[in-house]
Amino acid sequence: MNRSINGSIHRTLALGALVVLVGPVAAVGVEQGDVVELNGVTAKAQWWRRPEGFYIEESWFEGVLGGELLSSERVEQQRVKWYSSPFFVGTRHDRPVRFRYFNLQPLLESWAPTVRGKVLRLTTPAVAVTALRRSPQPWGDRLALDLSGPAPWQLSREGNTVTLVVGAEGSAGLGEGAGIGKLVETLAVQTRSRQTQLRLGVKPEAVVQVATLADPPRLIVDVRSEVVANDREIAWAEGLRYREQTVTTGTGRAFPSQTLEINLRQPGLKLRPLWNRTTGMVGTMTLPLLADRNGVAAALNGGFFNVNRQLPVGPVRFEGRWLAGPVLERGAIAWNDEGQVAIERLRYQEEIVVGERVVPLAELNSGYVRAGIARYTRDWGTVYRPLTDNETIVTVQPQNGALRIGARQAGGAAGTRAFAIPPNGYLLVARNAGEALAVLTEGAAVQGTARTVPPVFSELPYGLGGGPLLLKEGQTVLDTNREGFRPPFDRQGAPRSVVATTVNGTLLLTAIGGTPTLLETIEVLRQLGAHNALNLDGGGSSTLYLGGRVRNRRQLRPIHNALGIVLAPPPLESF
Predict the structure, then answer these.
(1) Looking at the predicted structure, is the pLDDT value of residue 10 above 70?
(2) Mean pLDDT within 27-53
(3) What is the pLDDT of residues 66-116, one digit of tens each?
(4) Which end of the chain has fewer surrounding CB within 10 Å, N or C?
(5) pLDDT band per the 50, 70, 90 thresholds, residue 61
(6) Residues 507 and 558 both lie in one domain
(7) Are residue 248 and residue 335 in the same domain, yes or no?
(8) Distances (CA, A) of 30 to 13, 345, 399
């Protein structure tokens, strides 16, 4: 296995004998639990016991055992490797589809599996670390751990400290004389019963990759200044493929990417915007929590937001209703369940008619603040707290058969008061609105209209905003000034999240690592097959999630919204 830590995960493909371990789903009851205890150490992981063996959550196989997932073309089986030549394991999904499970019975047969309540207990054969060697390489440093047998391992990184924990017992003095290297500045080894821990102090630019080898069993730790490309593509579920690919641009810069390839016409598969439904448009959380609360199998972080106030700065559209409105003329995506997708720059305009006067509104349910009158509905939350000082709050609600303007209230200092939003009406919030505020006379009837340019955004029921627009019909259309992004945004490099479509209509949800500029991002997307593409919130927000695990980073930042994949259970492969 080959796994790297520098914000993303990469693995080495290997060739060898293939063993198929796929069995039919038996029509009998199953045991299940949510904790796996391996050699006395517990981890949260779903598991199922069926007549054909134990199924354990995919993320446990990768993250706890140290197994490797290889390219696989069939949904019902996954090609894997663990101190061995590649072999196949049978796969199943839960209901509704959120996680994937592997039939690991061939491995577990010699691990004394026992069940106590919701806990699956496993004990691997005792393994020893027989030697630890370091060898300098032209590209950096290599550490080799010789083992007496296969052993679980986990890799983590905190700043410039990398920790490798191996489920094998080392001897006193292990690692003495290994020394430091080009990128490894310190090396400390701790041993205890059935466990050896290596702590590497590495230079900031170091990328640490771990591979497992067989005959004899070994762990190889490579410390490089650049990631070695280990591309793979996995058929994860019907209509959903996962692809890792390192793309090299014309300037020679290499960028790792993780992509969800989605067939929006696949029966039972739906794309949905995700947000914190319990608090309306106010609030943030990490993508795994957002995915868990919305019950989705896969997701990519979405649009921009105000980090301090946890408010959206861009549109969220759900079931034909704008929960948060678009801002400026930034790029957005809209879609329906029939596979129609629009990726365009979006202009949104609301107006209210009071008597014979027409009053344009500035924003709808938005954390983006500018002079004018904004509108806040119950989709925002039950209350509105002023975002700026000295706002004027006007309630609009039903009275005598029409929506009518109520009394004005002074907002006071920002955030100091809470104003109730009527369930069947809304609040109008005036910020340096000038003469427009005078039109809002108490008791006057109000009618509202809204339109989008292009009109297709009003016709499609779902949508999410980002920006800037990158590709349209295969052509570069980047224009940061038009979409209101200030310099040096147009020239900065950062991790990127992108939603795109290919020529044949496949949807791509892509995270790009490293620090590509927007123009480099476009070059990467072309190589990934993008025909239309929209930039989303990036940097520390860029997060791609699949099957219970974040695939592109270790440290998580709360986000406001996301694009999520809802999967109906397959008829044959689910529990």
Answers:
(1) no
(2) 88
(3) 999 999 999 999 999 999 999 999 999 988 899 999 999 989 988 999 999
(4) C
(5) very high
(6) yes
(7) yes
(8) 34, 51, 58
Q: Taking Cα atoms as reference points, which of 313, 324, 440, 441 lies closest to residue 378? A: 324
408 Cβ neighbours under 8 A, 6+ residues apart: 392, 393, 394, 440, 442
Whether residue 177 is predicted with pLDDT greater than 80 in this model: the reply is no
Between CA 257 and CA 567 the distance in angstroms is: 23
573: Cβ–Cβ under 8 A, 6 or more apart, which residues?
25, 75, 76, 91, 92, 93
Side-chain-facing half-sphere of 268: CA atoms under 13 Å? 13
User: Is there a single domain that holds both residue 208 and residue 83?
Assistant: no
- Domain count across the chain: 4
Residue with the bigger pLDDT between 391 and 192: it is 391
Q: What's the rounded mean pLDDT across residues 146-169?
A: 96
> Among 142-146, 183-187, 476-480, 567-571, whose mean pLDDT is lowest?
567-571
Same domain, residue pair 448 and 495: no
CA dihedral 114, 120, 126, 127 (to 10 degrees): 150
Please state, in angstroms and rounded to a whole number, the distance separating the CA atoms of residues 409 and 414.
14
Average pLDDT estimate for 199-227: 92
Does residue 574 sit within a domain? no
Same domain, 49 and 102: yes
- Locate the DSSP E strands across 441-540: 446-453, 462-465, 469-472, 475-476, 496-501, 507-512, 532-535
Residue 504 DSSP one-character state: T
**Tokens 């292990």 -> residue:** 174
User: How far is Cα 312 from Cα 280, in angstroms, rounded to an integer?
Assistant: 11
Q: Which amino acid is at 228?
A: V
Q: Residue 359 falls within a domain, yes or no?
A: yes
Q: Is there a single domain that holds both residue 17 and residue 118?
A: yes
- 186 pLDDT more than 70: yes
CA distance 558 to 283: 9
Q: Domain of 23?
A: 3-122
pLDDT bucket at 541, cuts 50 / 70 / 90: very high
Tokens of 331: 């790029």
Helices (H) and strands (E) in the chain, counts: 6, 48
Q: Can you name the residues that pair with 146 across neighbouring β-strands?
A: 131, 218
